[in-house]
């Protein structure tokens, strides 16, 4: 689901609900896996994505079912589809330390689960690839 808001100066922001889990049906993402998904997703979106200059915020939903992605521009789900799939691929392929998971950059640096994050990214990526026209 995409919600748009017009701001002053002809600026439009688009908020996308990236639902990794079905609310009230699937078990929510564990806090540790959610935290790792946040670190890796944020890294990809802010530094590696071709739309990095349009990215405003990527953060977890309190329900632990997914993330809110906030972007500059009058965007639609189709405009960010490839970027979200590539973000999942980045998470799936990541190995080694979690970026930013240290005492200086993260106030909860010991609470991470790379394996759980990868499993969530695989599941979400498969779902996106099987239903690319879904409005999120």
Summarize the structure in words.
There is one protein chain. Helices cover about 40% and strands about 20% of the residues. The chain is α+β, with helices and mostly antiparallel strands and about 140 residues long. It has one domain (about 1-130): Gyrase A, domain 2, CATH 3.30.1360.80. The chain has a four-stranded antiparallel β-sheet, covered by helices on one side. Helix 1 (about 30-50) packs across helix 2 (about 75-95), helix 1 (about 30-50) packs across helix 3 (about 115-130) and helix 2 packs antiparallel against helix 3. The mean pLDDT is about 95.
Q: Please, how many domains?
A: 1
Helix and strand run: EEHEEHH
Low-confidence segments: none
Largest sheet: 4 strands, antiparallel
User: Pairing-aware structural class of the strands and helices?
Assistant: alpha+beta
CATH architecture: 2-Layer Sandwich
Question: What is the H level of CATH, i.e. the homologous superfamily?
Answer: S-ribosylhomocysteinase (LuxS)
Helix content: 25-40%
Overall mean confidence score, pLDDT:
93
Q: How many distinct beta strands?
A: 4
- How large is the radius of gyration? 15 Å
The CATH topology is given as Gyrase A, domain 2
Cα distance spanning the termini: 4 Å
**The CATH class:** Alpha Beta
Principal-axis shape equals globular
Strand order of the largest sheet: 1-2-4-3
Taken as a percent bin, the fraction of beta residues is 15-25%
């Amino acid at each position: 689901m995409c919600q748009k808001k017009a701001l002053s100066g002809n600026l439009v922001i688009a908020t996308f609900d990236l639902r990794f889990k079905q609310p009230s049906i699937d078990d929510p993402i564990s806090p540790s896996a959610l935290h790792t998904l946040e670190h890796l997703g944020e890294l990809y979106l802010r530094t590696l994505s071709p739309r990095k200059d349009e990215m405003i915020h990527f953060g977890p939903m309190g329900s632990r079912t997914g993330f809110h992605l906030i972007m500059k521009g009058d965007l639609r789900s189709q405009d960010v589809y490839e970027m979200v799939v590539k973000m999942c691929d980045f998470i799936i392929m990541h190995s080694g330390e979690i970026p930013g998971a240290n005492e200086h950059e993260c106030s909860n640096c010991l609470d991470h689960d790379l394996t759980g994050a990868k499993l969530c990214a695989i599941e979400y990526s498969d779902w996106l690839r099987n239903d690319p026209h879904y409005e999120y």
